[in-house]
Amino acid sequence: MAFDGITIACIAHELQEKLTGGRISKIAQPEADELLLTVKSREGNFRLLLSADAGLPLIYLTEGNKPGPMTAPNFCMLLRKHISGGRILSVTQPSLERILRFEIEHLDEMGDLCRKYLIVEIMGKHSNIIFCTDTDQIIDSIKHVSAQMSSVREVLPGRTYFIPDTQEKANPLTISEENFTGLVGKKAAKLSKALYTSLTGLSPIAAEEICARAFLDSDRPANSYEQPELIHLYRTFLRFLEPVRSGDCEPAIYYDGKIPVEFSCLPLTVYNHCRKETFSSVSSLLERYYAEKNMLTRIRQKSTDLRRIVQTALERNVKKYDLQAKQLKDTEKREKYRIYGELINTYGYGVEQGSKNFEVLNYYTGEMITVPLDPQIPIQENAKKYFEKYGKLKRTHEAVTTLLKETHAEIEHLRSVQTALDIALQEEDLIQIREELMESGYIRKRNPGSRRPKITSKPFHYISGDGYHMYVGKNNLQNEELTFQTAKGNDWWFHAKGAPGSHVIVQTNGDELPDSTFEEAARLAAYYSSNRGADKVEVDYVEKKHVKKPNGSRPGFVVYYTNYSMMIDSDISGIQQV
Hints:
Layout: H1 5-19, E1 23-31, E2 34-41, E3 44-51, E4 58-62, H2 74-83, E5 87-92, E6 99-107, E7 113-121, E8 128-133, E9 138-141, H3 177-185, H4 191-198, H5 204-213, H6 227-246, E10 252-256, E11 259-264, E12 275-278, H7 282-302, H8 304-330, H9 334-347, E13 357-362, E14 367-372, H10 379-423, H11 427-439, E15 460-463, E16 469-472, H12 476-486, E17 492-496, E18 504-506, H13 515-527, E19 537-543, E20 564-568, E21 576-577
Antiparallel strand pairs: 1-2, 2-3, 3-4, 5-6, 6-7, 7-8, 8-9, 10-11, 10-12, 13-14, 15-16, 15-21, 16-18, 17-18, 17-19, 19-20
């Protein structure tokens, strides 16, 4: 679930419990649009991260610390002057908006007790942290917004703070049944969109969840539903929001294998197919989720140059393959020219010079055939001409057939590298892929005197429910090593049929594997392939001793002629990883 109003409500409840009555002991501004407050409360000491980053605005409690600049920015100095040592009276959320208001009590220059508000707006590129008086007059903000930047609202010192109501959305916590059915039911947009565009604080995934719980088609236009169906939707919506009203959240991250695909503070039935990991607090969930997402984003960014090299080479080879396939198709008429030449040599003696064709029995098929002739040249010269065409096309066919196989192998290799880039989770994994691309000639090799980077990437290691060790190659070099160095003859080898992907090895220790281990290994092979996410994936499996590597083939390429197959899903959520 996006950082929507529901998430803000749950984090507000958590901060209200832990920070209310606490005093702000430290204020730092580690980034231009980020604050880190240290609060001492009866619950203990807490660090509160407030980020108005346009790309990733956040609010959560963290145990981590970030160093600030040598000279504190002006906004940080202003906050230190006003609220350092101040006491947090409350943490509230207006309506279900993506806004938190921290009410802070402190002593002014005269020693009198007064109150200020620190307002955090989590609104994508419009996110901001605004410091106001108790009369909502803006003292300053971490981002200044002038009239030239926004025609809706200025955020500048001296201006009055207000929440702009530009989308005319209703408050989900107070909307009546009549207003709900009237507001949502009149829209022509699909039902899920009608929900999140009519009510504050709802993200698209929350709207999809409400539709799913009500057993209504989220893609059907909202105005096509009858009143009883809309009333049923409203009551489902109320039940969905009950934990938000009570603060009884269930923070969880939903994983597709090892990849976090979504987080939520409320249960999401639309992700029942994913592995679910629960957390004790919203802050711990957010810190974990965004740390893992940042890691994946960083790996994606670092692999950009490799992806571009592979994609460019793949596109070039696909074009080459299409041209070669067209050339090969053009050689299909070679046998016709050979037959023409033979028929002329056999029956041409009776044909008059200057004829444009003649009909004769094709002794290969037993049917009459018309043989075209060039009237400008002697009859036997026509036969010679046809044999020359045949010879040329035959040589082309043989050469292009070989080239076509090589190009196809190159395409399959590049697609396997693409899959390896999708599998990569750490920078060490990219190093090994880069080495493979160097060996294949797609990247210029390093100078002879330069130092080769140390390879630290290791295959994934899982243990089946029956206690057998299973290894998954992250790239072609690891696939090669696993299959031909790590695995023994009686170990079992798995691979998604006809798709780029990892080699999976199950060490048998001489035992006969139980069916459940075969299924778990097959799921790993399905998951770590280009067919990940498909309902059913066909996986081949065979004892390692039957797997061979052709001479001169690319890394990871193997052949096998006796194998078993099974259809399996790619859900590996229940498999233990070491």
